Amino acid sequence: MASDNAERRTVTRRTRIILVMAALAACGSRWAAAQTATEWVVDNTTAIGGHLVKVVGAPRVVDTEVGRALEFNGTSDGVFVEANPLEGLAQFTLEVLFWPAADGPAEQRFVHIKDVRDGGNRVLIETRMVGGGAWSLDTFLKEGTSSRPLLDRAITHPGNRWHVASLVYDGREMSHYVDGVRELSGHVAFGPLASGRTSLGVRQNLVYWFKGRIRALRVTPRALGSDALMRVPAAAGAVR
Fold it and tell me: What CATH number did the domain enclosing 157 receive?
């Protein structure tokens, strides 16, 4: 009898260990899934990231050094993706691989993410042309009454080349980078966005058109350091 009871206790302990290990594995799988980046390859006008696309104007699919991309004319081209890749994220890194034309308009809102709530909650990645074909990065977060722009026109980059713009939010501070180099940062209270939509090549109210090409967007649900940020592919022959 004593040996039977001991055997039962041993089996019970083993069962508990197995259950605990299974629970830890499940938690680990969920954590890993939550840390996985979502990448949208912008190479068509039908579906991006598995989401339907609405086309404005006539953006063209073009072959480039980094793969197929969408080309926008700076006056009437844009696409709307019926999804918000930042939905529900308290922290995030938003990156875009793009080629801004040296002769683009003065102000261009080429990535605009907006949720469905009233109040204009949004995320913007923009350029400001500063002369000689050069541009400066402008980023913006707004949620409720809290907002923060980041722009320094003294920090410039050449047009007609591939670049990666990165917007990082760690739950308290936003920062932006160009080609992996941190430029500016500032504190802002920015709550997670609700469901919504994304426009590429133009602001969602059809102003501030972008001239150039967009190849990809990547969203990571945490704040990445500079060493983990996307870089321009070596094939482009640009800063990596």
Answer: 2.60.120.200
pTM, entire model: 0.84
Same domain, 196 and 88: yes
For the chain, strand residue ranges (E) read: 38-41, 47-48, 51-56, 60-62, 69-73, 78-81, 92-100, 107-115, 122-131, 134-143, 146-151, 157-158, 163-169, 173-178, 181-187, 196-200, 211-220
User: Do 47 and 151 belong to one domain?
Assistant: yes
The total number of structural domains in the chain stands at: 2
Per-residue pLDDT tens digits for 89-123: 999 999 999 999 999 999 999 999 999 988 899 99
Structural domain boundaries enclosing 26: 1-35
Q: 42, 212 in Cβ contact below 8 A?
A: no
Distance CA 10, CA 51 (A): 52
